[in-house]
């Protein structure tokens, strides 16, 4: 264990509040008999999945149930044996409170409720290292990444960026440092802490896979100094590892778990604005993600994750390994939530309020904070900005939040972009320190949305312009072609007429006339004959 | 006398020189097309709907730059487009002529469609797919919501459907909407 020599700008010290759940070992909570599993098709970042099964089809645990297109997208899997009962819109676990298409599975009565990952090698706390290295050497880098992708692994720290996409970027460039994020800097959340304490061997096995894949010069695991047990567990696990892994302790400071902040903390290097960490030779992965990719390589897709349930509205706060897709209200009822409560998904700094408790657990849900309605403070009174620049001092991205706020609230979005709005990581440090209690981040989120919307609109307009120009060009071309054809036909007709005249043959009109005259004569003769007969 | 001659020669010489320079510049630095029209066209939403009274976005842009047409005639663009046009042309912003409409897409009722191809011919961006006596359908991603296909349809099987927001294009609302008035 070594201490870091570097730091990043700003940061805050919110109350940790981790005691409620940090000493509670990971327990399994699964679906009840009446529950259904709801698997949202768009989990994390990436293009939408398409279901590959139909209503009425039966599925098995670990079975892939969707197809995805594009590099930045991963499929979803069923956590249970069961039957697909619906593919329809369901309340999504999303700040908007909107619905999203989900695959609904009714678990079979006899389906195993145990976390399949835990049921395997975790029982005897041992990983067959030689078997793992044998497997790794038999696969190419592309095959390994494809296995991780098919296993449905995305970043489990919160943002949900597909791991395969990060690794694709990683194998294309020369990676100097592989960073494993075990910071868990947000208050209240303890799921990564417990994971490091209890499943350090899985994490280290995952790190070895990444080492094999990326060949970094150094591997660093960053852990905040408020998790001494986790640091110890990781150190014990690394002693038997073939990779040289350094565990680095950092002072407890929010948001040191932010990807860019952590990279700066451990390497002293700043990721330039608008680029990805791979641009400076760094790949950063969360501890839970690393453990998940180890399982994915062994054909155990991401179907369960550890979620911290905490807050004063829950009877048994703790860390629970739950199937992805279990409705949040089922999980909370099993944890002893009865009162009317407010549920926050994620940590208190970056989480969002849940609109519908029937929404499911998704891959990116790391924490549920349950607070009694009675214990919630009323919204603080808001004052005007006094330009004290506390926010500027606290901003880990070295922005000027007060200026950004000024531009955003006066709808000067061009100015917000000039002030590097898109470097804002929405960590909420500025909100936390603001003496006037201005909800600064909500202004930045709003401004980002407007700017993104305008860009999309512009792209659409540009496409429409191109299509319209093509349409016009096509119409003119078709007209010209038609006119040309007509002219040719006319010329041909004229030439024919002239040639007919010169040979003095009876033309078509005369022929037709003669035929008609003959027909009239025949008809008259018939009439006469009929008259004579009668 | 000679000084007058010199003066005339100098002035004449300068006039010739500058004339030649200007002549050269007008040929060498000639700008193809009309940059102001291009800029206006860039701002317009390219729905090609003709609701402004001109047969498309480009003709409206030309009318604004050449004939001084009003800048508040574009209902799909709404206030955003009007304000950007006012900014660009340094004109006073004016209230919209028609009400702003929410973005929508054309939807063909495929059971009713008789396959007459009239809507295909009317679509300014070739966003309708089909052939004579066969069912037609709208390519949703290409439709600009111009409503030009509604009128030609002899069986009235095309309707405009507002585009719903889903979680992929949802964005955070304006925080000032919830601010309690002090």
List keywords for this structure.
heterodimer, A: 534 residues, Rossmann fold, 2 domains, 6-stranded mixed beta sheet, 17 helices, 17 strands, 16% strand, elongated, B: 182 residues, mainly alpha, 3-methyladenine DNA Glycosylase II, Chain A, domain 3, two-stranded antiparallel sheet, 5 helices
Verbal overview:
The complex is a heterodimer of chains A (534) and B (182). Chain A has helices at residues 19-22, 116-119, 129-137, 141-150, 163-172, 191-198, 200-214, 228-239, 259-267, 287-297, 328-334, 390-394, 401-409, 413-418, 429-433, 440-503, 508-533, and strands at 2-3, 27-28, 37-40, 49-51, 58-59, 66-68, 82-91, 99-107, 177-182, 218-224, 245-250, 282-286, 304-310, 318-323, 341-345, 352-353, 367-372. By secondary structure, chain A is of the alpha/beta class. Chain A folds into two domains: 2-352, Rossmann fold (3-Layer(aba) Sandwich), CATH 3.40.50.11540; 389-499, no CATH class. In chain A, strands 2-14-13-17-15-16 form a six-stranded mixed sheet. A five-stranded parallel sheet of chain A has the order 1-11-10-9-12, with helices on both faces. In chain A, strand 10 (218-224), helix 8 and strand 11 (245-250) form a beta-alpha-beta unit. In chain A, helix 4 (141-150) runs antiparallel to helix 5 and helix 4 (141-150) packs across helix 10. The longest helix of chain A has 64 residues, at 440-503. The mean pLDDT of chain A is 89. By secondary structure, chain B is mostly helical. Among the domains of chain B are: 35-89, Orthogonal Bundle (3-methyladenine DNA Glycosylase II, Chain A, domain 3), CATH 1.10.15; 102-166, Alpha-Beta Plaits (2-Layer Sandwich), CATH 3.30.70.20. Chain B has helices at 2-28, 35-43, 57-67, 78-89, 118-122; strands at residues 104-108, 128-129, 137-138, 158-162. Chain B has a two-stranded antiparallel ribbon with strand order 1-4. In chain B, helix 2 packs across helix 3 (57-67). The interface between A and B is medium-sized, with 34 and 29 residues.
């Amino acid at each position: 264990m070594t201490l870091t020599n570097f730091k990043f700008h700003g940061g805050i010290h919110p109350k940790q509040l981790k005691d409620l759940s940090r000493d509670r070992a990971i327990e399994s909570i699964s679906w009840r008999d009446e529950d259904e599993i709801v698997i949202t098709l768009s989990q994390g970042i990436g293009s939408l999945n398409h279901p590959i099964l139909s209503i009425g089809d039966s599925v098995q645990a670990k079975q892939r149930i969707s197809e995805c297109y594009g590099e930045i997208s991963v499929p979803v899997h069923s956590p249970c044996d069961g039957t697909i009962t619906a593919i329809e819109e369901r309340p999504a676990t999303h700040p908007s409170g909107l619905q999203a298409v989900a695959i609904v599975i009714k678990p079979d009565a006899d389906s195993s409720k145990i976390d399949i990952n835990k049921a395997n090698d975790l029982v005897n706390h041992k990983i067959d290292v030689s078997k793992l290295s044998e497997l790794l050497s038999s696969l190419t880098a592309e095959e390994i990444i494809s296995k991780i992708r098919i296993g449905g692994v995305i970043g489990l720290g919160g943002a949900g960026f597909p791991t395969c996409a990060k690794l694709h970027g990683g194998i294309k460039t020369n990676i100097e440092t592989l960073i494993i994020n075990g910071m868990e800097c947000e208050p209240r959340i303890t799921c990564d802490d417990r994971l490091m304490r209890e499943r350090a061997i899985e994490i280290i096995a995952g790190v070895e896979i990444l080492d094999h894949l990326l060949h970094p010069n150094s591997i660093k695991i960053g852990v905040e100094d408020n998790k001494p047990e986790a640091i110890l567990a990781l150190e014990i696990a690394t002693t038997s590892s073939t990779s040289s892994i350094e565990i680095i302790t950092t002072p407890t400071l929010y948001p040191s778990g932010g990807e860019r902040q952590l990279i700066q903390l451990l390497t002293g290097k700043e990721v330039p604005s608008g680029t990805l960490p791979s641009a400076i030779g760094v790949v950063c992965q969360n501890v839970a993600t690393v453990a998940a990719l180890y399982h994915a390589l062994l054909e155990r897709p991401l179907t369960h994750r550890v979620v911290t349930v905490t807050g004063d509205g829950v009877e048994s706060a703790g860390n629970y390994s739950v199937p992805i897709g279990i409705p949040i209200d089922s999980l909370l009822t099993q944890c002893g939530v009865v009162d009317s409560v407010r549920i926050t998904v994620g940590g208190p700094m970056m989480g969002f309020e849940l609109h519908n408790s029937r929404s499911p657990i998704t891959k990116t849900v790391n924490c549920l904070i349950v607070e009694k309605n009675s214990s919630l403070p009323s919204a603080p009174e808001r004052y005007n900005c006094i330009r004290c620049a506390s926010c500027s001092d606290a901003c880990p991205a070295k922005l000027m939040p007060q200026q950004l706020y000024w531009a955003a609230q006066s709808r000067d979005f061009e100015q917000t972009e000039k002030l590097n709005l898109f470097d804002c990581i929405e960590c909420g440090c500025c909100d936390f320190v603001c003496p006037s209690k201005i909800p600064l981040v909500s202004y930045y989120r709003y401004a980002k949305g407007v700017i993104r919307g305008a860009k999309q609109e512009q792209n659409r307009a540009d496409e429409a312009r191109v299509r319209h120009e093509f349409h016009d060009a096509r119409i003119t071309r078709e007209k010209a072609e038609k006119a040309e054809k007509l002219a040719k036909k006319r010329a041909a007709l004229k030439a024919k007429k002239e040639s007919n005249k010169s040979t003095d043959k009876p033309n078509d009109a005369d022929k037709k006339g003669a035929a008609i005259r003959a027909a009239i004569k025949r008809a008259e003769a018939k009439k006469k004959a009929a008259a004579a007969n009668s | 006398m000679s000084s007058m001659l010199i003066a005339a020669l100098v002035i004449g010489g300068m006039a010739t020189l500058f004339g030649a320079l200007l002549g050269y510049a007008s040929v060498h630095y000639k700008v193809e097309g009309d940059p102001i029209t291009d800029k206006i066209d860039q701002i317009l939403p390219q729905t090609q709907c003709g609701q402004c009274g001109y047969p498309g976005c480009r003709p409206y842009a030309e009318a604004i730059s050449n004939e001084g047409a009003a800048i508040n005639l574009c209902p799909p663009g709404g206030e955003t487009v009007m304000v950007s046009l006012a900014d660009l042309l340094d004109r006073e912003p004016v209230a919209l002529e028609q009400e702003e409409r929410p973005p929508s897409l054309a939807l063909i009722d495929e059971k009713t469609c008789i396959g007459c191809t009239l809507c295909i011919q009317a679509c300014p961006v070739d966003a309708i797919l089909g052939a004579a006596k066969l069912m037609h359908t709208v390519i949703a991603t290409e439709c600009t919501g111009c409503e030009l296909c509604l009128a030609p349809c002899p069986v009235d099987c095309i309707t405009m459907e507002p585009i719903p927001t889903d979680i992929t294009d949802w964005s955070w609302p304006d925080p000032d909407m919830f601010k309690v008035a002090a």
